[in-house]
Amino acid sequence: MRNLLIMMIIGLLLSCGSNEGGRAGLPGKVGPAGELLVVATEQQWKGAIGAAIREVVQRPYPVLPQAEDMFDLIQIDPVDFDKFWRPHRNVLVVEVADRVDTQDPTVKFYKERYSQEQIYIEAKGKTPDAVASAIIDRGDEMLSVLNTEEISRLKSNIKAFDNEVLNTELSEQYGFTIDVPREAQLVTSQKDFIWIQREMTRMKGGQNHDVKEGFFIYTYPYSTDSVFSMKWLIEKRNAVLSKHVQGAVPNSYMTTSTALTPRYEEVTFKGQFASELRGLWRMENDFMGGPFYMLTFYDKQNERIITLDGYAYAPYFGKREYIREVEAVLKTFRLTPKKKEVASE
Known about the structure:
345 residues, alpha+beta, Protein Transport Mog1p, Chain A, 2 domains, five-stranded mixed beta sheet, 9 helices
C-alpha cells in the first residue's frame, strides 16, 4: 500500500502543471527550506482548518535529539497573497465557498504553478469543517509530497555544486558515485568502507560554531534475509563504526545511541528492496552525538549488501535540515558501469 501511494503521488506530480514550455520562464522559488506558506483568513487559521493544518504539518520529524516539526508554518491573509509571496517554495491555499466545485471537499497538489520546483496545494470545500476533514484525510500524502520535493531540491542543489574530483575517484576505484558538496573531503578510503565528511562553520549568538555532515558507504557479503532486520543492521552498524570511526578523545568511537528507539521502515531504492533506519548516534567515551540516516540494499550486480549511512553534528542548531540534506546526499548514490577491458592483440 505504501509503494502504491508513492507511485500515485509521483504520477500526480508529473501530471500536474503539464505546460512544460512555460516552466522555463518561471522565477526561482523563494522561502527557507522546510517552510510551508498557508494562505488563509485569520478566522480560518484560528479555527478548525488551522488546527487540522497544524496537526498534519507539525508532526515531529522522526528521531531527532530535540523535537522539531516536519515543516515550519507561516500564515498570510489571501488579500496579501501577491507576487512577492506566490513564488514561495511550498504553498497551501485554503478556500471556503458555496460553489459547484466546492460541494465535495478536495485537496489537490500542483507542481511549479508560480515558480520552479514549487509545490502548490489547494484545499477547497463548502464549510470549514469539510476542508479541515479533507486536510486530515490527505495529511500523510501532503507530508510525503512536501518532504519528497524538499529532498529532490537538495539533490539538485548538491548536484550543481558537487565534488567532481572525488566523484571521479570513487567511480574509478570503487564503481559507484555519490554527489557530495564541493567542500566535502575523503577521510577514509578502504575496499569495503568509505568515509566522507563535510565541515562547516555557522554563526549564532555572535560566534562561529562547527557543523559536520558525514557519509559512510560500507559493503559486506549477503548471507541471509536477516541482514535487513533492524536488530541485525544496528549490530552491524556498531561493529563497523566502532572499528573505523574513532573520535579525538582516546578510546572514543561512534556507536548507536539507545536514548531513542530507531525508526525502521522497508522502502524501495533504485527499484530494489531496501531497509531505512533513522536514529541517534553518539561517541562512546565522549560527548558528541546527533541524528543519523541509514539506507541498506542488495547490490545484485556485485552480489553484496551496500549500506549508505550518514550523520549530522550541529550542537547549537536545529538538526532537521542538516539530516534532511544528509539523506538527500545519500540518495544520489549510483553504481557506475564497469569499464570493459580492451583485449590485446
